[in-house]
Each structure stands twice: as C-alpha cells, then as structure tokens.
Amino acid sequence: MNDSAARAEFLALMTELEIRPIHVRHVARLALQLFDGLAGLHGLGARERLLLEAASHLHDIGHRSENPALGHHHESARMIRQHGWQNFTPPEVELIAQIARYHRKSMPEMEHEEFRKLRDWDRRLVQRLAALLRLADSLDKTHAQIIQSVGIDLPVNRIIFRIEASGPVVHEVRAAIRKGDLAMAVFQRDLFFMVGNEIVNPPEPSPV
User: Fold this and answer.
1) pTM of the prediction?
2) Number of structural domains in the chain
C-alpha cells in the first residue's frame, strides 16, 4: 500500500468531517512525537505509525454524527468502518477504527466484542497505539495547543514526558494522568510530566 496515497485519503476525510481540524492536527503531531519517543518500548514500524496518524486525525469525526447518544468515540469508529477506503486493507481499517474508539472512556477489554474478535497481535497493537492517542488527546485538553512538543526520557520503570509549552499546563497534565491508565498498563511504567526541570503532576481537585 502507498503511504502517501493513504495519508491523502484520511486527510481528505478529516477535512470533510472534522469540526475542529486544528485540534486533531495538533493531537496527531503529538501522537507521532510520542510514537517516535517510545519506539524502544513499543517496537512498531512505519505502517503502524501511519495507522496511529490516521486514527489521530479521525478520532473526533463522530461529533458530526446524527446519533451522538452513543458517544462520539463510538461514532468515530463506526464512520471510519463505513468509509469506502481505497488505500487501507479491511484489517487496517478495523485497527484504525478501534484505535480511534479507545481515545477516551474505557480501555480495550475482552468483553468488547470488536476488540475480542481481533487476533492477539492486533489486540496488542490497538492497546499500544490507543495508549498513545489517549495521551496525545489529553495533552491538548483545552484545545488551545498550549503544549507545543513532547520529548521522552526512559529511566528504569518510568516514562518521563518533557513538555515544551506556551503557558500553564495543569489541565492538560491532569487529563493525561487520568487517560494515561492504558499507557501504564501497556508499558508497565509510571508516568511523569515535566516542564523544564519541574515535575508537574498535579493532584486531582478535591470534591466540593
């Protein structure tokens, strides 16, 4: 499959359906930075990187659904499956759909029928790539593109995310800690977020 043609295809679908293209483009850029920085842990290649890029650009198209009661993550997956793809195989389309579906809410679980039907390797692939998309989406929680880039350090038993930001990142980091549940499960490491030399893992606000 031609990666350039595949990229043009998912970008065209994103342009047609996406309500907030600046946000999803930024999320995609952060997701690819995470993919590259964590290559030593996930061991994936160029085609898997393209699947993450596609899912990142399409994870929010479900907001355009006429049936939003299911949740836009479910609707994004449905719309991805129903698109008449020319440059991805049916198994790849299913992977893109599930990576997008798990960008929020529950983690992939065997009780979910679509996830259970995947081959074992593909389930692990969805877990790894959805973990990165959950983090990238969290790091633009306010849709303000405050976090401009993310670097990765990998000391023993940790993943340190080194954030370059244009302003306070408390909302983004708090969201990333919540949605980092899948990354912690997949990579079996604790997550730390740093701006400059300062760790910025804020506690959850106390209930009123």
Assistant:
1) 0.94
2) 1
